[in-house]
Amino acid sequence: MIKKELKIIIISLVVSCLLTFAKFGAYFVTHSVAILSDALESIINVVAGAFACYSIYLSGKPKDEDHPYGHGKVEFFSIGFEGAMIFIAGCLIWVKAITFFFSPHELHKVDSGLYVIMGTSVANFVLGKFLVSQGKKAPSITLQGNGKHILSDAYSSIGLIAALGLIKLTGWTYIDPIASLIFGGIILYQGYRLMRQSISGLMDETDKQVIDQIVQLFTKNRTPAMIDVHNMRVQQYGSNYHIDCHITMPYYYSLKAVHDEIDRLENQVNKQIFSGDAEFFIHMDPCTSQSCPLCLVENCPARKHRFEGKVEWSRDNVLPNRKHDIEAIDK
């Protein structure tokens, strides 16, 4: 899978290089700061693509003594680096646009620049969609991040095409720096979003959507012996996940019976969500008399209290580090 991801990102890098040359060619012909803005962002595509190549290579290396969870975290560094580069490009675009107001210059061959940007916009849109699609299949946040950045480049080019069209029709050259300021703002926001995603991943921020998927599958594959689930934590390492949780089961179950139950649950969750790329660490808690009102085991030989109700698992009650009690039924 890693070899496939590397091939994809290398293709992206080559295409980005060609499109960057085309955009700079259009800038030298037209002297448009808006086109220069687009070209500067394309340089970021190239630099980010090169860094993504290395991060994908590194994330594919096997676990070792120094990295017991693998090297997947480097992908968060990758998108953080890309976000920072995008943010810097946005600042440079604003500086160039503001400079134009104090030192305006004439534009040339706007129609030629218009055609070049139209072609590069279509190419970026196709490339971006391809990267995002492949990144979701992998899954690879590096491919997805790179694809989203290239898509933002394609979308901003649509506005650039409109601006160049207006300049050609009206001759108002001040549309050029105004459009550049708008594009710079869009690029700054995109850079911020990628840096925010990078920080979230490095800080192991809870992905609520993934948690909900896991809880749904736990519920779907629940057996009467699974009395309680709590203290769930999910960490992402590139395309790999590490899942911790506590499950309460009857204290009189044999070690083999407990292992079989958990092994079946792990296999189902891995198969249906993570394609085998999730590592589980499930701590087993023996039931106590407090568990009896929630226990679904029929004819339990150790029951101290009658069954009162079933706890429906949700993100709100599986994340805290506490066992469920009868009050959880009413919540």
UniProtKB/TrEMBL annotation:
Gene3D superfamilies: Cation efflux protein transmembrane domain (1.20.1510.10), Cation efflux protein, cytoplasmic domain (3.30.70.1350). GO terms for biological process: intracellular zinc ion homeostasis. GO terms for molecular function: cadmium ion transmembrane transporter activity; ferrous iron transmembrane transporter activity; zinc efflux antiporter activity. Residues 9-203 form the Cation efflux protein transmembrane domain. InterPro entries: Cation_efflux (IPR002524), Cation_efflux_CTD (IPR027470), Cation_efflux_CTD_sf (IPR036837), Cation_efflux_TM (IPR058533), Cation_efflux_TMD_sf (IPR027469), CDF_Transporter (IPR050291). It is found in: Membrane. One of its GO terms (cellular component) is plasma membrane. Pfam families: Cation_efflux, ZT_dimer. Residues 209-287 form the Cation efflux protein cytoplasmic domain. Keywords: Membrane, Transmembrane, Transmembrane helix, Transport. It is a multi-pass membrane protein. The chain crosses the membrane at residues 7-30, 42-60, 81-102, 114-132, 153-172. Belongs to the cation diffusion facilitator (CDF) transporter (TC 2.A.4) family. This is Cation diffusion facilitator family transporter. It comes from Chitinophaga caeni.
